[in-house]
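Same chain as my last thread, 223 residues:
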Amino acid sequence: MKKYLILLACFLLLSFRFHPEVVDIVLVLDKSGSMTDLQDETIINVNNFIDKQKCLEGDVNFTFVLFDHTYDMVCDNMDLQSVENINKQIYHPDGNTALLDAIGKTIKKIDSRCEKPNKLMFVILTDGLENSSTEYSKRKLSKMIEDKQCEDKWEFLFLGANFDAFEEGGSMGIVSGNSHSFIGSAAGIDDAFNTINCSATSFRGYAFDTLKAITDTLYLITK
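reply #2:
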């Protein structure tokens, strides 16, 4: 019996090793005019985040959205390994803050895909409150986010500067504990992206809980 358990554990281990879970990461990033002084630091941190995540094992589909009063989907469900670094031509702050529209449009875009994400982390970073959305109200968006958290198990992470991010995140339906405030400075942007990177790394790590369980079982039955 012990022999068969060992063989089963080895089979599961090999199967898991070559079929890691695919994770979706979505980054919706403010590029309104108030981010002008933080342009350089934001570019550095976005690129560092992408590079760090590329170094981790496992497949990631990456969606990257920039918004002011306009909307720009820079990457749409792209293999993270194929994502290139951004520059000042891509990230050039200007305009107002259509935060609700940016989030709502992105959720709708993902929902329209033929293949639904199995495991998705949705990150939002802004240094200002909503001031120019025309398509989505906070009430409508809150319902969308709550549905995604409850029904599809999406994880939302909200980071905001120059206002109460906890209150604002909660008013949009984001679960308690997933909203973080940061200082609107170069050091603050560094801290915000450190939070994003740690959260994304931990989120992707859940896909390897099965691996730990298998190896723990193999250890126990071979003692």
